[in-house]
Amino acid sequence: MAENKSSYSIDSKSGYCRETKTYHSLRPRVRLPPEKLAISTAEYVFSQLRQAGVSPVDAAAILIDATTGRSLSHSDFLRRVFSLIFSLQTEIAPPLSKGQVALILSPPSLHLPVLYFALFALGIVVFPVNRLATESELTGMIQRTNPAIAFSVSYLSRKLPSLPHGTVLLDSTEFDSLLTLPVQNRGDLNSAVSISQSDTAAILCTSGTTGPVKPVELTHRNLIALISSYQSGQLGNAGENRSVLLSMVPLFGVFGFSMLLRAVAAAETLILTDVSDFEKMLSLVQEYKVMYISAFPPLVAAMAESELVKGYDLTSLQLIGCGGSALRPAVSRRFTARFPDIFILQRYGLTETGAMVASTMGPGEWDQYGSVGHLAALVEAKIVDPSNGEALPPGRQGELWLRGPRVMKGYAGDAAANAVRFDPERWLRTGDLCYFDSDGILYILDSCPDEEAGQIPMAFVVRKPGSSITSNQIIAFVAQQGGADGRMVEDPAEESAITAAVEWRWWRQVAPYKMIRRVAFASSIPKSPAGKTLRRQFIHYVSSGALASL
Asked: What is any Pfam family matched here (predicted)?
């Protein structure tokens, strides 16, 4: 961290330092390897397993594909990773080089974790992409990241352009053969390639719900810090009583990506699924005796209300990790009343910070409804008044700034965005309106609240002079653009009329998960003297019920 904690007075209750006006984590301290040590994410994870006494011939399942029922034991996983490392070095011509980017466009499968770790070990940048991304979105991301090779499946590969090393099909017999080549001497994962912790390990895309999708570069040190911060909170141990996790979130996003790293590093059993069906989730909890689910707020809302839960044995379930958006306090209370023995771990994080930077964890935090808990280890924060740059004490609202080894290297190929997002001391401006209370618990105020989803995409629109366009027309127009194939509206005249009536910014082609659900019309977009949109003004309108005044 940039600050030396021992030289300042940090309040033991809130974590706030009055001298630096900075908030510090109250979680147990975490040790990271020396920054100059050459080590990849893969080698770090496997070293943690060795220290924990997990045997390389461990036959317990660590990965289960809920769609196919197939599983990988720890020993199978290691064998496939090493085989793929060797295959990528010898079977790809010309050979891939450290630092090249590998785009991955695929539904979840047992192949993906193996592929991720093999690429980590070789210093190849892992770049998973939402398979619902439109071709135009893919084109933009490819232009900014310049991938050398793609890994995909047959039905999705048609979306991809020609790349220097082509596209490897994960559902082909050729790829299966890459996983089974005999490797006589596994050796050290870093023996073939020297990897610095400052090297880029992965590029993960932001959701794009508040603007264009941005490719975020995360270094090996970023991911090592992420894994380390999870270690103190893991649910159980390897062996007969190993924890069983069910991931209801995609592996291409930072939430699912981080849960995969956590599960492998802790030798937990992770169940992957490609469906969001509520009843299927209940059946998986019953079948596999799931202890922990990572999910989005709608699932928690469904559990709080649905009568379907009465038909399943959920007694194994201890925790639900909820992220992606805020969970409404009313939903939390209904859930707790119905399931008093299942705790909700509410998270807050960004792709730019490699997922979780705050969470509710343990007694005294579970019932802080509406909060996202204390800062995670290896994170420091400020609350900054956007109007004058003043750092604020507990109880005052402002923009959340973050710093530490969890914070991204930057946006790939976007120096202008990096200049705006970081201050000269490498504080990351999150753009989220927040405050810490006197106990150091963080509250996020930046959302358009929704009873089930927690937050929903909302548009604030300035009509052009003479326009009488309605909110329903705007919602329908955006929805028509976001079909499975990303098509625009079929009638060019209709599209022309709508785009002439409204100042469209980034809604040219959108994936389904980014479709707006609510529209408010404004006379103008409030901006700071520097030209930055003052999002807190809109948040005030939503939270105060003053939308009509717009």
From this structure: AMP-binding
